[in-house]
Amino acid sequence: MYKKLFTLLLLVLPCHLFAQKNLLKDFPEGFGPKEVGKRLAYRFVDRKHMLHAGKWISYPETFNWTGALKYAAITKDKTLLSLLEKRFEKLTSEEKQLLPIMNHVDLNMFGSLPLELYQITKDKRYFELGMPYADTQWAVPENATPTQKEWASKGFSWQTRLWIDDMYMITIVQTQAYKVTGDRKYLDRAAKEMVLYLDELQRPNGLFYHAPDVPFYWGRGNGWMAAGMTELLRLLPKNSEERPRILKGYETMMKSLKQYQSPTGMWNQLIDEPECWAETSGSAMFTYAMISGVKHGWLNKAEYAPVARKAWLALVPYINDKGDVAEVCVGTNKKNDKQYYYDRPRNVGDSHGQSPYLWCTVALLEK
């Protein structure tokens, strides 16, 4: 009897209700996260360094490296892990001068990379290299400016500057420190910082200005916020004082992004400008945030899984035969000039774009 009823339900109910759960699992050939991730992760191994100010390993390279490590770990690719670790060994020996100093939000984030290696290998050397980058983000230096000291006196990082980029740079190294120590101070102070940025920069439509004095919804900048909130929501316990505010900010942003997704599946360099060009790094960051939201239950699966799938299917064709992502906005400072964002150069293979694609592959592969 029950078997007949179930058969009847299969005939009567719309097929998409049963297919819904597979929207983030079943992809056409060439679009699967494992095959896409392999192309991108192995591509990193032989890339030239992308330096900050021509001196130190940059944040785009750091996140590209970490993304490749996460991919190697989730796929249990020992060959890739060995290649990535060997490259890091070179960085800490003959290329030691390229290790970033610890005096800026875009440099301290480097600590997230050795701390990722520590989580995978349990090699204490990586822990000892990474932790000072997290700790000095809250340790006020003697030459700090009055503004920096004021931020610190309120319990925030002295590196606070209210640029949306910061909410990944600060969040990622502090959450990594929490993962390897279990000390809630790292998680709590990152969450407090995030609430500050939400209150200062998020607009009623859910999107974020690049900075208080730059009223434009820049794609990748908003992507840093989306990814930063995602990293925190993965870790913050339900009894966290800051979790409801961050979840609300995340949900409001995702609702707005759903509305601004173009018919092609992408998001534009300026999100709310339909005539602006489609940009890959920000689009991939939004996709990562949505995939994670669906899988962790922060977002309604029926509503957001199709959005994330559409985005992923749109993103993959931007990868060329070398494993390089096209249409990546170059590094971008804030500027109160809309045309400035329209005119930003676009690179191929820029690590700003490679890393969020890898985040997407890992999120899709997660159970």
Automatic annotation (TrEMBL):
The keyword Hydrolase applies. SUPFAM superfamilies: Six-hairpin glycosidases. Keywords: Hydrolase, Signal. One of its GO terms (molecular function) is hydrolase activity. GO terms for biological process: carbohydrate metabolic process. InterPro entries: 6-hairpin_glycosidase_sf, 6hp_glycosidase-like_sf, Glyco_hydro_88, PolySaccharide_Degr_Enz. Residues 1-19 form the signal peptide. It holds the Pfam family Glyco_hydro_88. This is Glycoside hydrolase family 88 protein.
